Amino acid sequence: MPLRHVIEIRRDDNGRIKSAGGVEGKLVEMLSSKLGFDYEFILPGDRSWGKLEDGIWNGMIGMVHRNESDIALGDITISEKRMNAVDFLPYAIEDSTFVTRLPKAVLKPAAFLIPFQWPVWLTLFLTVACVLIVFKCIMKKKISRRKLLLSIISSVFAKPFSFHVECMRDRIIVGSWIITTFILSSVYTARLLSSLTVPLSENGVRTIKDLASAVSKGKYKCLTNRGSVNLNLLNESFDGDLSVIKEGMAEVDWFSPDGAIVAPPKIRENVAILGPRWFFTLEYGEPPHTDKYIFKESVSLVNIGMAVNKNFCCKETLRKVISQLLNSGVFKQLYNEEFYKSRWRLLSDRKPIHFGPKALSMSDLLGPFVLLGGGYFLGLLALMFNVIRYKFYR
Question: Any idea where the Ionotropic glutamate receptor L-glutamate and glycine-binding domain is (predicted)?
C-alpha cells in the first residue's frame, strides 16, 4: 500500500514499479540485501489494508491470505481478526490520536479587554458606582457629584484627584481608593502587555473530552482514513467519550493524485481527523512550523507488523533479522532520517508561525486607538451640544 513516509513507490518510464522509498521501503531493501532474495511490489486493486466482508478478506490481508503475495507492508495494524487470516512479524508500536486546526487567535482590536474577564469588568463598573455613593455620603469635604465622578474615573487611569482633602477621615478614604486603583491598573497594564506580545488563542478543542462534548452538540465532525482499523478500534472501546465520538465519525479517502495515501493537507474548522501520531507529525510538522494541533492524548496503542502467509517458509528467518534490525537501532535510524527529510520539506514549503514574543504592531494597538478616537468623538459631540444649547438659551 503506497503510504507517504512509509512506502513511497517509484515508477519507471513505462509505469512499472522499480523501487520504493520510505521507512518500510528501505526496510525491504535491507532484508533483501541481508537474505539475498529478489522481490516485486504488487498493489492491492481495492487500495485497502484488509477487512473481512461477507466472510472474504479484501485488501492486502486478503492477497496474503489467498497466497497471491508472500508479504504485505504498509503500516499494517495487528488485530485479532487479522491474525486468524495471516501471521504477523511485529516491528513497531503505534498510537493513534486526533489532529485539528490550531485554534484561532483572539481578535486583536479587542485586546484591551483581554486582561480581565467580563465578570471582573462588570464588578469594576459597579465598584466605581458604589465608591461614588460612599465618597458622597461619608466624606466631610463637600464636592459636586460630577467632579467627584470624574476624579474617581481618572484615578483608575493613574491620574491625580482634582481636589484636596485635609480631614484625616477623608485622607484615609481617598488613600485606600488610590492604593486599590494602583494595584488594579498595574495588574491590567502587565496583563495587557503580555497578551499583546505573546499572541493568545482561543481554547478550542484540545482533549478527547472536549472533542466528545463538541461532537455531542453537533459542533464538530470527525474523519478517518477509509479502510483503516481506526473505526473498529473505536467500536471496541469502552470509553464513554470515544463512544460519543464514534457516532460522529466518517471514513474518507486520503489518496493523492499519484495514488499514495497522504494526510489531508487542509483541515476545515470544526473537523478532527483520527490517525497515527507519527504520521501526522511527519505530514504536518511541529510548532512553530505548523497550523495544526496534534492531541497529546492517545486513542489507542497498537502493534504494527509485516503480514505473511501462514504457510510462508521463511517466517522465522525474517523474524530473526527484523529483531536484529530493531535491537541495533537501524529501524529507529530509518524513522529519524524520514523525520528530518519531512522537516526540511516543511521548512521549505511553509512560513513559520510565530507563537512566542514579538514586536507590537499597529494592528495590536488598533483597539486602544479606536477607543481613544471614539472618546474624542463623543467629547466633541458633547462640546457641540453644549455650545448649541448655550446659544439657544442665551
Answer: 5-66
